[in-house]
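Minutes, methods subgroup
Present: GH (chair), OT, SY

1. OT presented the first of two proteins processed in the latest run. Sequence and structure tokens recorded below as shown on screen.
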Amino acid sequence: MQVSIRDLSFTYDGSYTPVFEHVSFTFDTSWKLGLIGRNGKGKTTLLRLLLRQHAHEGRIDMPLIPVYFPFPVVNPARPTRDIMQDAAPDAEEWQLQCELNQLDVDDSVLDRPFQTLSKGEMTKVLLAALFTRDDVYPLIDEPTNHLDAHGRELVADYLRRKDGFLLVSHDRAFLNRCIDHVLSLNRSDVWVMQGNYDTWEARLNQQNEYEQSRNEVLRRDIRHLEESARRTAEWSAKAEKGKFHVAPSEAAVVDRGYVGAKAASMMKKATSALRRKERAIDEKRSLLHNVEKVGDLKLTVLRHPKDVLISVQGASVVYDGRTVCRDVTFAVRRGDRIALTGPNGCGKSSILKALIGAGGSLEGSVSVAPGLTVSYVPQQTDNLTGSMKDFISYAGVDETLFKAILRNMDFTRDLFDRPIRQMSQGQKKKLLLARSLCTPAHLYVWDEPLNYIDVLSRVQLEGLLLEYEPTLLLVEHDAMFLDHVCTNSISLGGIR
């Protein structure tokens, strides 16, 4: 069966910029389809349109019942079994157990209150319930945000064994592992193609090279046409002036009627030529494509006189008197880019917060170099409110630099005037990243900086870190990103 979208147009109320404008494409419901696109390019909006949550122009033919993941949980204090049965009313318990086993989740969770599960367990439980149904089409929106590296591999393998879903994810390794087709929302068009992330990236790079060379030829033609139009306009102005200005020595013998008629004829020809050139310029500009390129980012890295910036020896992470991780030992030296890795709940974020004095819990021998300037990106974006101007003022960053970084991260100018609460999660995360990049620092501490961040921006950040080589301590689960940028990783096993 196929999902058919014909001449789709949609603009949010109060916005002047269409999210979709006369878009048409089709895809098969049996495909493992990955939805790729920049933050703010309409991925979540497309899911909502498929769910019939917005009025739109054009036609959407959906042969199956679309179901959004993650779906809301009413009263999470109830047993997990009840939550799963709400999501899959016709499923037998043995079916729920079978799906849970495939996701390496013990059956005992069925009797536990849903709210006592970890975020990763919640994701797996809701996915298991979703795939017990065969009468729906799953719309899966960023399932990896609460999964550690092992959990991502497990869920990717689980999805690879399933037929038929539309998946939004920015984790490149995850996409490579579980999809067989790509739906790409580009700047100027939509692609539907067979393959995985690597296949899509190869086509994008090839397309960009072609468009860049083509655009350069068009821009050169436009410059020549604009110069010709300028000369034509000057000639037209001289012709018009000639109707009224005749040298005194010639005034007695010149037939002003003749001069006026001739000037009018020249003016008409000049105006006609100018219009032709202006039409040609407009036509050339309409052929220019917006190449999906990654802008350049910059970073001001401070050099600290000490070689060792942070030293942790035999430390433990303790929550409410309960030790969740012990024997934490590592050092951060100038130029290191170190990732703290390990399962969810082992204390990674708590260690980062404790080291920068933002809370957290870390007991043991901890040494921080004196005078250390730290630039921090927190994991959560929920507390971001107000206007862009409020955020800039509170952050104490240079407004021009801050906005320039955001523009290079594909922030459109209209977003600068939009309340932060109306921004997507990815756009909010870019605010936090841009603030960090604006801050000269000895050490950059980033807690899951790539949550909700699109794939092209991830590539962009990789290039930045490899070029400027800042000292970096981070928590992140994107395996490809860590493999590309980190000089070392510290595995925190936690306590079971």
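2. SY then presented the second protein from the same run.
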Amino acid sequence: MKKADVFLSYEHSMRTVVEHICSVLEADGISCWYAPRDVMGDYATSIVDAIDNARVFVVVLNGAASQSAHVLNEVEIAYKRILDSQDELAILPFKLNDDQLSKAMEYYIKRLHWIQAGDQGIDRAIEELKTKIAAIVRPGRSQSAKRTSNHYYDEGDADERKRLKTQRQLLERFDKPVYDAVCASKGALNVLDLGCGNGSFAASRLAGKEVGCMLGVDCNEGAIQSAIANFGADNVEFCHCDLESDDLCGVLEDFCSKRCVKFDLINLSMILLHLKDPLKVLKTARKFAAKDAAVIVKDIDDGLNLAYPDESGAFAEAMRLCAASPWSGFRQSGRQVPYLLKRAGYRDVDLVKCGLDTLGMDYDDRQALFDTYFSIIKQDYRILSTTQPDNDSYRLAQKWIDQNYNDLEDAFHEESFFFSLGFMLFTAKR
């Protein structure tokens, strides 16, 4: 059966209102269940199953609905689910007008906070309802709907090191031909790697190529120390600096003045999504780029993610949780890259690769792709729920992940399952 975020309980005379509520919620990615639209098979069984699988129970109320035997039965089933299993089902009464409610209905909902449509108008009330539901079914999403600076990376976190290593290895086949083609058209390269991490990405992509000098910059001091220890050389330097700070210009100027160079290749791999002001960073880098310098930008856009089949909506929910994590970056970043590059003064912007999918992948490659995307959800909410135990949103997210992670992984390995992750690879010139 269809599993949905929200069960809508109502009396039949309010069908038009419920359809309007449903259309507003589903337009924002919140799945709904209501009868008779979603009934499959036996009517009563279908309703009970839908309530059992919902995260939120919305009862749309007026005087008639409060006396409806069907509505009262559905409210009772919702309460029974909470009492029997101590479940996290949320019940939200949505009151259309000032009608007197039946004593039976008041018994169930009198202690709950009502949304009063009569006080503010139906459209504003539905927006209030949507906001409350979104906070329950997609914790933290409102914070991820805009760009913010987020610098989470712990060099001492073994899980994060493992995930990033897996991601680098998987993406090497995706992007290395592009690096090879760009570098083949140039001689000795002077390279700027912004968001260099521990240095291993640039080292793998530039292996075997003639490098005049290279500067890697990252905001994480532990990663920079690791980069210096493993890849530092006379012609390769690494610097700890927040890319969005005014200090970046000074760092680049010092390096270029000392070596009397400008950069022939500027690399930004999976870093723009973590910046609040990527345009500032791109403009600063351009000041120190040689004429016709190449720029390679890898970024991600979850709008390009595809998971099929996903009848239960579990993959969709996992992707929403990824976007909601305060550490996973701005998940619609990829679509902004051409605009940002052109605004910063770069030319010949080209999207050369788009999407990394499971077609043709063996078991190990599928596992690597799964780990690249889904393990970040698991580890982020593990840390968030531990460090912020009073945050109900993080606790509920962690509970959902614990309950569904293994099933997601098993489904991912099904031969018939298709998944595409929205990596995007751009090239441009100074």
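Chair's summary of item 2: The chain has two domains: 6-137, 158-429.
Next meeting: continue with the remaining queue.
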